[in-house]
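Table S2 (continued). Query chain:
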Amino acid sequence: MRQAGRSLPEYRAARVGTAMLDACLDPALASEITLQPVRRHDVDAAIFFSDIVVPLKLAGVDVEIKPGVGPVMGSAVRTADDVARLRDLGPLTPEALQPVSDGVALTVDALGATPLIGFAGAPFTLAAYLVEGGPSRDHLAARTLMHADPATWTALTQWAADVTGAFLRAQVLAGASATQLFDSWAGSLSLADYTAHVAPASARALTHVADLDVKKVHFGTGTSELLVAMRDVGADVVGVDYRLPLDEANRRLGGTTPLQGNIDPALLAAPWPVLEAHVRDVVARGSVAPGHVVNLGHGVPPETDPTVLTRVAQLVHEI
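Corresponding output:
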């Protein structure tokens, strides 16, 4: 998962004195952080070090990541006028995206035969941050806006789709071999709301890489009821969080879709026999799908012992 490096002492050393968004937009530093878990754990691919709100920052949005809080906007976006001001910022230009393109190119060159997966936040999660003004437990303001003013909501999510789609495309053009669209907050939605008010924007985001020869992974947390709809926006692979066994996910998806997931991050701190049994169970359940990218079912907790992650990677390779 995208936070693979944050449990590493070398990551913490590299980040000393550098704010999160500054680290994401420093090509050499972003590349180094991307490479660290590959060197440490001998995993089969890297995921580009970034953050969901990086494309918002590049587009000119006033956003910062406050330690212990998360992304915080300078002001919330809740009215048609607010969205109009956002849209006046225009699309992301190649010049604005240059730090990302440079970071990806450096990383691909260093990785050699190991592929790099591009990363971006899905439009709903970006829109939810903008409407809420920061992290939220239930995304009430965002869910209210989508129903109270559907036109404004659509304009906002279309803008977010184009911004994050351009961000994904830049990564692929610079050498990424696959993409992942990460919808952190989609689990707060009903299937009806997702289908009517979110899926069109996610599909729009993925059209930005539709003409490129890359597979598209779509992942969300708490999205067990949304898997088919998330696949149908144009994804090739569906990520499944730790809440739903992969054999059940495969059944819900009709047995035709490769899966990514879904080792429970909480078990990384459990005794090894417990974790080993869990990993073997995940791999066995994933084996019924047409393909399985073994991964966690959400991010690596920062306090995770890195040697455990290395041991998990070795176990999966042995299996």
